[in-house]
Request: fold
Amino acid sequence: MSLMEMFSDPSKIHSLSMADKMAGSAVTLVMGMGITFIILVLLWGVILLMGKILKIGTSKKSAPAEVSGPVSAQASAPAAAQETVRNDDTLIAVIAAGIAAAEGSASAEHLVVRKIKRISGPSTVWGEAGRSECIDSRRM
Reply:
């Protein structure tokens, strides 16, 4: 009977010497760490391979058609303006949904967001309120 077979049987562990117990523990340790290291290396290789495959796939799909200089500048300007309008519409819809959720479902039907004004500067009201609440919660 080998050392690992004796080490795996709980009834025979008490009959093993301290050196046998330490040797069995060392073998178990090396096997566990070795398997873990091998699996981590395999995972690293798979992730690296997937990254290269995805990079190849996106480079083939995103190859733009060549267009002359002035035409491409004119074409990109309306697209950028349209994207900004779409982002603003999305922002307004999200803010309107948040207000409707806070007010309740009864007022959601008549809610209209007419103007959104961005507040610029070093700190906003919400930021100040959050810092104040955090400081107050830590006072004794």
Observations:
- The radius of gyration is 32 Å.
- Helices lie at 3-8, 18-61, 69-103, 125-138.
- The chain has two domains: 1-60, 80-140.
